[in-house]
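Structure tokens please, single chain.
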Amino acid sequence: MSLFLTDISPPSAPPPQQYRIFSLAGRMARAHYICYTFGSLSAVVFLLYLLGFAALLMGSFGRTVYITSSVLLVYAFLPIFFTILTIKRAHDFNMPGWLALLLFVPIINLCFWFIPGSRTDNQYGAVTPEPSLGLKIAAVALPLILIGGYLATAGSLITSSNDVRPAAGPDSSLQSYTP
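Here you go.
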């Protein structure tokens, strides 16, 4: 009797699309793109923070490990990872991956945050699932936190012209040397 009951199953919705992060194939929605970008930046900063403390404990070898790790993470991992994410984001609005080269053009690279993805299947894959409310809130909050942090610290870095004093001239009490 259990044989017959296992044959009957209710229709189910298709499984949600899983993001294969390190694959160039597929699409990525805006909210996921923003969250993965800020998440990876935060993870690298936190990892470098931990490595900095470990470097203090390891002495001169720790300094070498920290510098090597920093260079690999910041100049190798992050650019490659951001390029992969941006290629998938370009696929979402039915553009080729070569458009990801705009990632390296300042200000223009923000277009990937604002261009909506195509609402139907395209040549790069099926429609991306609708992001959850929490993911949408995070995608809006994370850039605002970054901009707010920048504006909060930028004011302290700018000095007004009234605070700048001219350098003092030579001291008049000095006399020239005469042998």
